[in-house]
Design goal:
The chain is of the alpha+beta class. Helices cover 18% and strands 39% of the residues. It has three helices and twelve strands.
């Protein structure tokens, strides 16, 4: 059975920020202890892979797609609502007042496509056009420049550097420059 073909509906639960995995663990224990596995089926902390450039190194990291939120696949009843709502770290369901609203099928499919890892990981870019940077390696090391274009898919920047009094565009890797 795929993620979108579950028995119940998907609901979003708000948690204390940074406690998403702890809420998932606590909720799984409560489901077992209170025999609710017939009404609460899956708990998910949506994460996706990103490529990050840090200290001149490229690495793949997992990032939470929705920090402070956990997805729960369940059949909504007074009992199941009580079990989820009273789990330590849960601040409430997403929805107006105290009435949880399930995600529609299109929203669920979009989220699962994003976290499935299909295709290359997203590149996390901290550079923006117009930003001043310093070249830290290569033939232009030590020179200052301004970001003209960010090519996230290639991991490169086009930077304008003043050479012989003229602004010259130069393509450099993300790890060859640093923010000023």
């Amino acid at each position: 059975m795929s993620m979108t073909e579950e028995k119940g509906q998907w609901y979003v639960v708000h948690t204390y920020s940074g406690y998403e995995n702890q809420v998932k663990t606590n909720l799984e224990k409560r489901i077992d202890n209170m025999n609710m596995s017939d009404k609460i089926f899956k708990i998910l902390v949506p994460e996706e892979e990103e490529i990050e450039y840090k200290d001149g190194k490229k690495r793949v990291v997992k990032r939470k797609v929705f920090p402070g939120y956990v997805m729960v696949n369940m059949i909504m009843s007074d009992d199941s609502w009580y079990v989820v709502r009273n789990t330590p770290g849960v601040t409430g369901f997403v929805g107006p007042g105290s009435k949880p609203i399930p995600l529609d099928e299109h929203e669920v499919e979009t989220i699962f496509m994003r976290i499935s890892g299909e295709g290359a990981p997203r590149v996390r870019v901290k550079f923006k056009p117009g930003q001043s940077v310093r070249v830290k390696s290569g033939p232009f090391q030590g020179m200052m420049g301004m970001v003209q274009d960010v090519m996230a898919d290639r991991g490169k920047l086009r930077i304008l550097i003043s050479i012989f009094g003229r602004e010259t565009p130069v393509e450099l890797d993300f790890n060859q420059v640093e923010e000023v």
